[in-house]
Specification:
The structure holds two protein chains of two kinds. By secondary structure, chain A is mainly alpha-helical. Chain A has a domain of 215 residues. Chain A contains 22 helices and three strands. A three-stranded mixed β-sheet of chain A has the order 1-2-3. The radius of gyration of chain A is 22 Å and the shape is globular. By secondary structure, chain B is mainly alpha-helical. Chain B contains 25 helices and two strands. In chain B, strands 1-2 form a two-stranded antiparallel sheet. In chain B, a hairpin with an 8-residue loop joins β1 and β2. Classes of the chains: A mainly alpha, B mainly alpha.
């Protein structure tokens, strides 16, 4: 789709915008259909995700191969496979299960909303929309890919546009520094991931009976772990793979202390980019942790040591970045720091090593994706009106912009974990899961979640939305027509829907984790039956 | 009524206000009448539903309904699963509480239509009011701890919205924030308590919890005291007990009907309700702490009330004090007296707040009692109903407050002498500050322009006052006969109350307080107490400096930590760390660049030098 858009002449603004909206809407509808039909679809190849990824991915789809039994075993549906670099064992291989379908649903919704909110781009908009679509296609591909190299490649495809977008369309004085910082940081993370993945592929290739020679196949990796119990990880560079992947993916999600790129980049990025990156692209690191690092955990030497580190770093994310967020003067910096803090919940959910925590982690991922997009979209709307996001210069905006103000208030409340919004469900599930393994850490997290989160979110509400308005101010306009309100209504609606009916999301995911968990030996903690 | 319809009724009771709130947000736009009709209609529907439920189920053992599964993680049979249910708990406790919430709530909703008529944002007000009612009903009907916690948080949010209704006023915006944060601190303990209970007993539903605890007290006893006290933290936050009491007086910044709702029927009552709901979890040690917390709150709040001059603040501190009473009653193993007092208090405190609202509106938002005076003749309905509320609050026989307070004192006398004395002292103070309020505000001569031109409020406001006054008079006697709460807890902690001594002591204390107030304030034009008492009077007026203490504590702990973290984040991690690495890389790059001069002669020289070095090393 991005390719098609490139051919559209640059002066046809309306056409560009509509094309982007159309493309993202089609992928949104496809993802919804995919998610809904997941339960009934047969495992193995299917056409729906083909349609989805074909829409936006640059890789051509050619000969379909016969359904390999592994896909059925691990409950992956709508799979599609084409050899790409056979000599290296790299193929184009996509498919979804409950986990990736949920993330794809969230990602497509955010992409659509981001395309709606891209109004603030006034110049060179053709390039912007092309990059936005490239970014969306890349991240959809990363979530759908069942090929380890493909995952990396698709993620890079989403990452590169970020650099250009911040550098060209960014705001503020520091935008160039921010663009370099985020790109270098994330490249380092991605390099570590790549190194780990190559190492992994070597081991899979060496240990897995090469009936179907590949190496980079996610499913073969699972199968290898199951059959060989991960014996290859003690030899040679094997012990380094686990930490490389852990830290690499961690950097991609702004794991403390590798987090300082995030608030700065989000403060400088154009609205749509911040929405996409904070909402969706950042989740790729977490997705990698769940998909690759977690199954590896029982077999890797020293895994417990690194897992402890993840636990404490995740705690630092919540606590440290929460405290830092309390001191921010700029709304976007505050939102950026709070977004980093929320990532801590996901880390801790993963680090709790049980299904409850893991489910909570995925719920937070989905919820935070929607929330981050909502918050940055709203702050983008504010910035377009006020030309500043310094909180002391704002005030009383709920009176002048009832719609935007109320939506922002709801976003801030969702951010401090108010029930009704999806974030609460995720956070409380993480806490219940974590309590089983780490009661002390849970207690600290409760404090950070309930009190520190509320302190900075309410401070923002107090300074931006409440209180008397400043003496001199131009007339601001609220989001008036439906097209301006649509993205926010959609995101808020999704947050509320998942918050009120979380089971709709979790029951699809339950089965896929159970499958992966059982076959890879992820241990569950005993919970007495009700 | 057929059984199948009856089983659907709790859904109507709970969700009617929520539907109203959503409908007002989506459909009403700026139309005031539409929003008021929807909101009032919803709560009246809830009231009717509650009455039907009460009539059908009161005193019976309701068959447990199959709850819905709200969130299911993992296979329910397999290990490592987690299930949150959504269901209704229908027993004597919740049925009677439903009546209080919807009954008093309805009157306050109707009164609001009169009080808020001139406001700019009537639809938003009614939407929040309905949301608030919904959350409170959710707490009452919840059948497990997590469901209760969810609605508990929602009450916190809706109170935030309502207290901050006039959000452009900095004081209102700050008060809303403060209320929410104080509640959150309590909820921190509450959530930990839930986690402990779940971790040890493996369930959060009230039915199986109480069965497990009764069957096997030892299984739980190791952490029972800690878990009980942590859950009590939730009550400390929401019911504004010492040391988290500071938010409640500030919450007076909200519109007066909101204060009435928060103080009488919802929110603060939720904490006491929670204690009664999970009463079976508390150990004797935990109960002792609860009793003293309640007692101390009752005392300090009563002392503070003596020196306040704002009519709403006096009532706010009196609420604090009465809540302390109720919590103390639970602590001395008397959840029934606590709920009885909660009911009576809901009637007369709603009455007092609505009466105060009537006065405030008549005086164009003047709240200082020293600028009132002589309102007795100008606002007769308000005066007489207010007087009834005052007498009920002071515990004058045969008003409702007499019976309920008497039961608490009798229970305290039975269990803990020191707390009985404390309770009697508080009864005296209560009578003192309430009579002071009535004398200063309603009798004598008008002390301001506004007071001399006051008019009685319209019927939409006075009719609820009259109904509440009737309930305040009769509620106690009815409760004495009917026992609406049944015997929901006495089976666990048998306690026979000897009430004669307690009744005499309580009544004497009240009369003493009234007499003192009469002597001090009969003809007063300024408060004589600061001269009589000196410094202690000033401490009472300044609320014993709790706010200042907390501000200081916060500044030196959490704020300091956040400053440190921010500094480290900006200068150590992002500054020294990241810029250091990038700086080092740049330095290396520029150092290496020096070698790449592009000058052939330099390269040749270096080449020769390297060659010489190699030759030297190898030869």
């Amino acid at each position: 789709m991005a390719v098609v858009l490139m051919c559209v002449p640059a002066d046809r603004r309306d056409l560009l915008r509509r094309g982007t909206l159309l493309a993202t809407m089609i992928s949104l509808l496809t993802a919804l259909l995919l998610f809904l039909s997941l339960e009934n679809a047969p495992a193995g190849p299917g056409n729906l995700s083909t349609a989805l990824t074909a829409l936006q991915s640059p890789v051509p789809l050619l000969n379909e191969t016969a359904p390999p039994p592994l896909e059925a075993k691990y409950q992956f549906k709508f799979t599609q496979r084409t050899d790409w670099m056979p000599s290296l064992g790299i193929s184009y291989h996509v498919g979804t299960d409950g986990l990736s379908a949920a993330l794809l649903l969230m990602a497509t919704l955010v992409a659509f909303a981001a395309a709606c909110c891209a109004r603030d781009v006034q110049r060179r908009d053709k390039e912007f929309y092309v990059l936005l679509l490239l970014m969306s296609g890349g991240i959809f591909g990363a979530f759908a890919s069942l090929d380890l190299f493909g995952m990396y490649l698709f993620h890079e495809l989403a990452l590169v546009p970020t650099f250009i977008m911040i550098g060209v369309w960014g705001r503020g004085e520091d935008k160039n520094y921010a663009a370099y910082k985020i790109t270098l940081y994330l490249s380092v993370g991605a390099m570590l991931v790549l190194a780990g993945l190559i190492g992994l592929a070597q081991i899979v290739r060496a240990k897995y009976p090469p009936a179907e020679f590949s190496g980079y196949n996610l499913l073969e990796f699972y199968s290898m772990l199951e059959q060989t119990h991960g014996t290859g990880f003690n030899e040679g560079l094997g012990p380094l793979i686990f930490p490389a992947l852990l830290i690499g993916f961690g950097i991609l999600v702004s794991l403390w202390p590798f987090h300082t790129w995030a608030p700065m980049a989000y403060a400088s990025a154009p609205t749509a980019t911040a929405m996409m990156h904070a909402g969706v692209i950042k989740k790729f690191g977490l997705y990698g942790l769940i998909r690759i690092v977690l199954p590896l955990h029982p077999y890797a030497p020293n895994a417990d040591y690194w897992w402890q580190l993840l636990l404490w770093f995740g705690l630092a994310n919540i606590l440290w970045c929460g405290l830092v967020a309390m001191r921010q003067k700029d709304l976007n910096w505050l939102l950026g720091n709070s977004s980093v803090a929320h990532m801590g919940f996901v880390f801790l959910g993963i680090a709790s090593l049980n299904f409850i925590g893991l489910t909570g982690a995925v719920l937070v991922m989905v919820a935070h994706g929607l929330l981050a997009a909502l918050a940055f979209g709203l702050s983008g709307h504010l910035y377009a009106q006020t030309k500043t996001l310094e909180m002391s210069k704002l005030g009383g905006l709920r009176r002048e912009m009832p719609f935007i103000g109320t939506a922002l208030l709801m976003a801030l409340l969702a951010g401090c974990g108010v029930p009704g919004f999806a974030n609460f469900v995720g956070e409380i599930t993480v806490l219940f899961g974590l309590w089983k393994t780490q009661p002390i850490v849970t207690a600290i997290v409760c404090w950070a979640a309930l009190v520190i989160g509320a302190v900075y979110m309410l401070r923002a509400a107090r300074q931006v939305l409440h209180g008397p308005p400043p003496a001199i101010r131009p007339n601001y306009t609220d989001a008036r027509d439906w097209s301006e309100r649509l993205p926010f209504v959609l995101l808020l609606g999704a947050l509320l829907f998942f918050g009120l009916f979380p089971n709709w999301l979790t029951e699809k995911m339950n089965r896929s984790y159970h499958r992966i968990g059982q076959s890879t030996g992820m241990h569950t903690t005993q919970v007495s039956p009700r | 009524m057929p059984e199948s319809l009856l089983m659907k009724l709790p859904w109507l009771v709970l969700f009617a206000p929520l539907l109203a709130a959503v409908a007002i947000m989506c459909l009403c736009g700026d139309r005031r009448g539409c929003s008021a009709v929807l909101s009032i209609g919803a709560i009246v529907a809830s009231l009717v539903g509650s009455v039907c439920l009460f009539a059908a189920y009161h005193g019976e053992v309701v068959p447990p309904e199959h709850p819905l599964i709200w969130l299911q993680v993992g296979d329910p049979i397999a290990a490592g699963s987690l299930t949150f249910d959504f269901g209704f708990q229908l027993d004597n406790l919740s049925l009677a509480m439903l009546l209080i919430v919807t009954g008093v709530g309805s009157l306050i909703h109707i009164y609001s239509w009169g009080y808020m008529r001139e406001d700019r944002a009537v639809p938003r007000y009614f939407a929040c009011l309905s949301l608030f009612t919904f959350s409170m009903l959710g707490i009452v009907l919840a059948n497990n701890l997590v469901q209760l916690f969810i609605f508990w948080e929602l009450v916190g949010v809706s109170s935030y919205l309502l207290i901050g209704h006039w959000f452009e006023k900095p004081s209102a915006a700050d008060a809303a924030k403060k209320a929410f944060l104080a509640n959150r601190i309590g909820d921190f303990g509450f959530l930990l308590g839930i986690l402990i209970v779940w971790g040890v007993l493996g369930t959060v539903s009230f039915g199986s919890l109480s069965a497990t605890v009764k069957a096997n007290r030892e299984a739980f006893s190791a952490v029972a005291t800690a878990a009980g006290l942590l859950i009590f933290c939730g009550c400390v936050g929401k019911s504004a007990q010492f040391p988290l009491h500071v938010w409640l007086p500030d919450a007076m910044e909200g519109p007066t009907p909101v204060s009435a709702l928060i103080h009488a029927a919802t929110m603060v009552a939720a904490g006491v309700y929670l204690l009664c709901r999970v009463f079976f979890l508390f150990t004797p040690d935990a109960l002792l702490v609860i009793a003293w917390t309640g007692g101390i709150t009752a005392l300090i709040a009563a002392l503070m009330a003596v020196q306040q001059n704002d009519i709403k603040r006096i009532l706010a501190y009196s609420t604090l004090s009465q809540l302390g009473y109720m919590v103390m009653a639970v602590g001395v193993s008397g959840p029934e007296p606590a709920m009885f007092h909660l009911t009576a208090h809901a009637f007369f405190k709603a009455l007092l707040f609505l009466g105060a609202g009537s006065v405030i509106l008549a005086l164009h938002h003047e709240q200082d009692i020293w600028k009132m005076g002589g309102l007795r003749n100008r606002m007769p309905v308000t005066f007489w109903t207010f007087l009834i509320g005052t007498l009920a609050l002071s515990g004058m026989p045969p008003f409702s407050g007499f019976f309920s307070k008497d039961e608490i004192l009798a229970q305290a006398l039975n269990q803990n002498r020191a707390l009985f004395l404390l309770g009697t002292g508080v009864a005296m103070l209560t009578a003192f500050y309430m009579i002071r309020l009535v004398l200063v505000a309603f009798t004598g001569t008008a002390r301001s322009d506004a007071a001399s031109h006051a008019h009685e409020s319209p019927a939409v406001m006075t009719v609820p006052l009259v109904i509440l006054a009737a309930l305040s008079i009769a509620g106690g006697a009815i409760g004495q006969v009917a026992h609406p709460f049944g015997e929901f807890a006495r089976a666990i902690h048998p306690a026979a109350a000897d009430s004669t001594v307690a009744m005499i002591c309580g009544t004497l204390a009240m009369l003493l307080g009234m007499t003192l107030a009469w002597r001090c304030y009969r003809k007063a034009t300024a408060d004589p107490l600061p001269h009589l008492l000196g410094a202690p009077a000033r401490w009472m007026r300044d609320r014993f400096y709790f706010d200042e203490l907390y501000a200081w504590l916060n500044r030196w702990t959490q704020e300091l930590l956040s400053h440190a973290a921010n500094f480290a984040d900006r200068w150590l991690i992002a500054g020294a760390g990241v810029r250091g690495v990038s700086g080092l890389t740049q330095l290396t790059g520029s150092a290496l660049r020096l070698f790449q001069t592009g000058n052939l002669q330099t390269y040749a020289l270096l080449f020769a030098a390297g060659l010489l070095l190699l030759l030297y090393l190898f030869l």
